[in-house]
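Retry 2 of 3 after timeout on previous attempt. Resubmitting structure tokens to design endpoint.
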């Protein structure tokens, strides 16, 4: 093996070290987990020319191409230029100089998303266009963050296990004049959601405390008595993670925020990270930084300049019962920080 290989530099470049000495796996970003199918030809060309002919569908919706030898990385980076220009700059309007050096950072991870309302009948939001807007706000950055978007509270995108998990939710409107009291919404809410609906005197009544905004009621209503309010709303969970020692589910930080608020919050992520890490990016993900700052500071910094919509709810306190990161994390990251 070439002992001069700078593994860290290659990692920043989105190449992951293989257990085979001198080989690497490229992780190509695909914001929202979607690209034009024509780019499969690009992936195939890289895999066949410089890789081992295989493609792994990366766990964060990347195209992961293993078996690339160190001496071919320069050629791969040069070839990637067109893909990065089209997928990052043209599609996501990411502000970056694209050159023959490949990806400039691995910090902000590929933004994940379920298919959302471009296909799924349960979706409350356009996850794919949101992913592109979020990509523009966090990439390229050396501050590490994992984000995922689910089109509805079913959370097929596992937003719950990300530093920032976004869930599309809906404010529901009920039109009594259209209701035929068939109770299908009551049954569906009971079996698929939160049992907050009941029929009283021929009219549907909702216990508003616990409606999660999934819109399952609207999907089954035969008369259109239930409809989603046109404004899109979002739930934001923070601090979720997998990991070796103490995996944990994210907790609700914001509920019923509009897209404008959501994007303003995400737009503050880099400034928040810089505050916590004293402007020196490290291989620590969002959940660690939130723990390091403490919820009160996190809330103060991440909401700086953000004008909340009237429906928005912000968690007063947040804590996890799982063991937190060790207190020495300020000095030396413990193992399992990815
Ligand atoms: S999370 Fe909801 S919108 Fe997304 S794929 Fe699953 S059911 Fe559909
Ligand atoms: S949005 Fe979901 S939780 Fe709320 S009433 Fe409809 S089915 Fe029940
Ligand atoms: S499903 Fe629609 S029509 Fe039937 S009870 Fe519910 S709101 Fe009324």
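Retry 2 succeeded. Sequence:
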């Amino acid at each position: 093996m070439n002992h001069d290989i700078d593994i860290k530099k290659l990692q920043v470049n989105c190449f992951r070290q293989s257990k085979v000495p001198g080989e690497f796996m490229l992780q190509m970003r695909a914001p929202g987990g979607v690209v034009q199918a024509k780019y499969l030809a690009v992936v195939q060309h890289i895999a066949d020319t410089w890789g081992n002919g295989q493609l792994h569908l990366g766990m964060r919706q990347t195209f992961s191409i293993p078996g690339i030898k160190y001496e071919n990385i320069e050629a791969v980076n040069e070839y990637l230029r067109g893909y990065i220009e089209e997928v990052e700059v043209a599609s996501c309007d990411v502000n970056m100089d694209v050159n023959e050096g490949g990806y400039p950072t691995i910090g902000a991870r590929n933004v994940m998303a379920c298919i959302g309302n471009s296909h799924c009948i349960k979706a409350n939001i356009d996850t794919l266009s949101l992913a592109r807007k979020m990509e523009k706000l966090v990439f390229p950055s050396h501050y590490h963050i994992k984000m995922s978007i689910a089109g509805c509270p079913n959370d097929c995108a596992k937003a719950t296990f990300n530093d920032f998990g976004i869930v599309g939710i809906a404010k529901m409107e009920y039109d009594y004049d259209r209701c035929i009291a068939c109770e299908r919404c009551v049954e569906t809410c009971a079996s698929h959601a939160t049992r907050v609906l009941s029929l009283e005197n021929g009219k549907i009544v909702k216990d508003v405390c616990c409606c999660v905004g999934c819109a399952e009621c609207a999907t089954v209503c035969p008369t259109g008595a239930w409809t989603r309010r046109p404004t899109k709303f979002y739930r934001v969970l923070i601090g979720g993670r997998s990991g070796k020692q103490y995996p944990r589910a994210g907790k609700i930080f914001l509920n019923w925020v509009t897209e404008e608020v959501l994007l303003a919050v995400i737009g503050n992520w880099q400034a928040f990270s810089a505050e916590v890490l004293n402007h020196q990016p490290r291989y620590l993900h969002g959940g660690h930084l939130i723990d390091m700052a403490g919820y009160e500071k996190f809330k103060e910094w991440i909401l700086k300049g953000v004008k909340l919509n009237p429906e928005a709810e912000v968690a007063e306190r947040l804590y996890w019962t799982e063991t937190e990161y060790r207190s020495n994390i300020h000095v030396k990251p413990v193992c399992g920080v990815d």
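Attempt log closed. The first helix runs from residue 7 to 12.
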